[in-house]
Design a protein that fits this description.
2 copies of one chain form a homodimer. Chain A contains 15 helices and 12 strands. The first copy, chain A, is α/β, with parallel strands linked by helices. Chains A and B meet through helix 9, helix 10, helix 13, strand 11 and helix 14 of A and helix 10, helix 13, strand 11, helix 14 and helix 15 of B.
């Protein structure tokens, strides 16, 4: 591992200048300091400062996620992480970060400058600027619901979407539902892709026909329902599976606006089991993610990475929580609409490309023809 | 949780009889004892005996895997598990179990009778009798390279086959190989299926045509090579990816028997990085599984299960170890064979059914037609 002397030699400055740069002393210029930090990161230097003052520091970076109140998704994740890390006497910083913040400084430089030993990354989308930097980071980093290939310093923790969606769909199937729509979350999210793949796979395993118009990406907000629920209903959907509980809230409201009762006419299932789910009308059947456990395991996995045990993918069991938004299927008349054939095919292709299956199918079909 | 009193009430016997049955006292009949144990298991009774004598016991059950010498696959897995568990003062039993052994007594009864708190299951195939019992077990159980759905008491630990196979195939692709065969392990193994899926996916992602005759299941033994390597070579394969190092050993030998040099004519890659890999001629390029870490993580995950944290899938990073069995591709003339079209199609169907993709593809195609 690079030492302070190595950095000094590379830059042609004194060891004391490098030391000042790393420790934020005021008597060197900001530009020299930045050069010291950039070079230290490039050379893979890691601070040993914590061995002096016995303070071990971790950072939880959070973005795109509410966490202030107990009803919000991030609250228990942070709580669980803190509970597990405090036992090992870590100091935890919880830092909400914007896209702008990430553009201002590289991840490794930020970690080094602030003497963090590792971090937990929560709520990042595929478009967040630091996402590409995690591919090469030297710092132990656990990502909630995101995955980076090959880099041994980075691990992924999440809930098993495949099992969760399959449980939900199986529950609907056993209630007699055959036309089951899926309103997923945003496109630029790894878990949306996972849940879409899981839906396609589970539909296929249950022998059900997949209608691309009934498997769509929306956004992780309630409003997504307005654009898609009318189409699902026109096509005869008797049940709507949702990418999360917020979407389900919107779906229930939209069904009611259109004059359909939940669950008598249409069954609805959410994902997450936010505290609000049990207070909806009707109380929501949903796939529970145990957020306290997600936070705790975030720490356990980070602890393993800091000890050079490179766990890379770690999934928690989901749990299907049965409430009152699902009931036996009642078939409805399908309202027929004329549609452009081309447009349907284009949608299909886009859908399968998004779910990464198209390349596989093309290749297998090519193999079958050859 | 059921108490000794509950069991006594159910059976209509005294508490002391139940206690004797659970603790293996000699002064009750074997049939009464078995009835006590069976009822205790059925009612989800868990022994609290360890709180008396302060001995915490775990069992590592091992099947179909050599582990006695440091060169064998299981050796470091057991070592890692013991190292991690000893720190927490657990007593570890390592117990080789046959299929017969599993048929003689149910898993939960065995665990209860021997006062184990949890177990690590290593080397089991899908056909092992206890595999179906893990779906309902009440005991914290970690499976190496096997997965059970829904049951919160059971978790899966392994190495990420998808990333490992993709690394290997990418390495071959960059060396110019386009006709890459895959000789997988046995059919009745979850990791064989994973690696086959990973191969198909990686081939597709690299834009390569999948030839079903070049993607076959063999057995996890060197002899599998004799049956398949001649066919791969006839079809023009310039590289052969193998389901493990033993298979690769056979593939190298078979190539030489047929008059082809490794790596000059044909590149070969293994999986596992057994100690013997570096002593082969040529030394084997392979995907490393860190078996010491697998063992340690087996304990960490079991510890989580025992604390009711239900991690379900946990994968370690693989590592591509470059040695001398891979080199730049040299195209060879393809020897043409006449083949029965029907037989090829049947093989295709069998292959895709095995890899669980066929149902998905059928369903998507059906959706496209509708």
């Amino acid at each position: 591992m690079a030492t302070i002397k190595d950095i000094a030699d590379r830059l042609g400055v004194s060891v004391s200048t490098v030391s000042k740069g790393l420790n934020g002393a005021k008597d060197i210029s900001e530009s020299v300091r930045q050069q010291v930090l950039d070079t230290a990161v490039e050379m893979g230097y890691k601070s040993k400062r914590r061995s002096k003052d016995h303070k071990k520091k971790l950072c939880l970076f959070i973005e795109n996620m509410d966490f202030e109140s107990v009803n919000q998704f991030g609250y228990e994740i942070i709580l669980g992480f803190k509970q597990a890390a405090f036992k090992e006497r870590y100091d935890i910083t919880v830092l909400p970060v914007s896209s702008e913040f990430q553009k201002n400084e590289s991840y490794d430089t930020y970690m080094l400058r602030n003497h963090y030993s590792g971090s937990f990354i929560v709520g990042f989308s595929l478009e967040d600027p630091w996402m590409s930097q995690f591919q090469d980071t030297k710092f132990p980093t656990v990502l909630l619901d995101n995955f980076v290939e090959i880099n041994k310093n980075v691990a992924y923790i999440g809930t098993d979407s495949e099992e969760g969606i399959d449980m939900a769909l199986d529950h609907l199937y056993k209630l007699g539902h055959r036309k089951i729509a899926f309103l997923d979350g945003s496109v630029n999210s790894m878990i949306s892709d996972q849940r879409m793949s899981a839906y396609l796979k589970s539909m296929a395993n249950h022998g059900l026909t997949i209608d691309p118009d009934m498997a769509v990406y929306g956004y992780f907000v309630a409003d997504a329902a307005k654009y898609h629920v009318p189409g699902f209903i026109d096509k005869g959907a008797t049940a709507i599976l949702c990418g999360n509980d917020l979407i389900a809230t919107g779906v229930i409201a939209e069904c009611m606006t259109l004059g359909y009762r939940v669950p008598e006419d249409i069954s609805v299932i959410g994902f997450d089991d936010l505290p609000v789910s049990q207070h909806l009308n009707p109380p929501l059947t949903t796939v529970r993610q145990d957020r306290l456990e997600l936070g705790k395991c975030g720490y356990y996995i980070l602890d393993n990475l800091m000890q050079h045990v490179s766990l890379s993918k770690n999934l928690l069991r989901p749990q299907l929580v049965l409430r009152e938004s699902t009931a036996e299927a009642v078939e409805r008349e399908v309202i027929k609409h004329e549609e452009e054939k081309d447009s349907v095919i284009n949608q299909n292709v886009a859908l399968y490309e998004q779910t990464s299956k198209k390349a596989l199918i093309d290749s297998i079909q090519k193999g079958l023809k050859d």
